[in-house]
From TrEMBL:
Gene name of the record: aroQ
Keyword Lyase set for record: yes
Root EC class: lyase
Organism field: Phytoactinopolyspora halotolerans
Protein name: 3-dehydroquinate dehydratase
Stated role: Catalyzes a trans-dehydration via an enolate intermediate.
Superkingdom of the source species: Bacteria
UniProt pathway annotation: Metabolic intermediate biosynthesis; chorismate biosynthesis; chorismate from D-erythrose 4-phosphate and phosphoenolpyruvate: step 3/7
Length: 145
């Protein structure tokens, strides 16, 4: 089975209790189970991680680049300003799908810019937890072209 990393940035570990009107009531643990289950169905060995630490996230991306591991990334707040994260993403040697639970373009103006989007294979946003399902499906489709 092909390994896939699903990486989540700051505050996503608080899913289910954090702004449920924006992010829904699905817990982070439920998101992990969902990604692992959907990944298995697509033939992937999915590992889901979350950190509030920018340096840790950059390190995970470096490891993914070195191993040519596809990545689904929800950079969360780092989306809008982390050039370190953007530069780590640019080093990836396998597809990168940027995901967002909400639609950043429909929210506050500071959320409208993604420094990651320009180096991602594609971006999926605004579909709640289904955004992750769509990202894994996209990786599957890219892998089986």
């Amino acid at each position: 089975m092909k390994k896939v990393l699903v990486l989540n940035g700051p505050n996503l570990g608080r899913l289910g209790s954090r702004e449920p009107d924006v992010y829904g009531d699905t817990s982070y643990d439920d998101l992990v189970k969902r990604c692992e289950r959907n990944g298995r169905e697509l033939g992937f060995d999915v590992e889901v991680r979350q950190t509030d630490d920018e340096a840790e996230l950059v390190g995970w991306l470096h490891s993914a680049a070195d191993a040519a591991t596809p990545v689904v990334l929800n950079p969360a707040a780092f989306t809008h300003y982390s050039y370190a994260l953007r530069d780590a993403c640019a080093q990836l040697t396998a597809p990168l799908i940027e995901v967002h639970i909400s639609n950043p373009a429909a929210r506050e103006s500071f959320r409208h810019t993604s420094v990651v989007a320009g180096v991602a294979t594609g971006t999926i946003a605004g579909f709640g937890m289904v955004s992750y399902d769509l990202a894994l499906q996209a990786l599957h489709d890219l892998h089986h072209r």
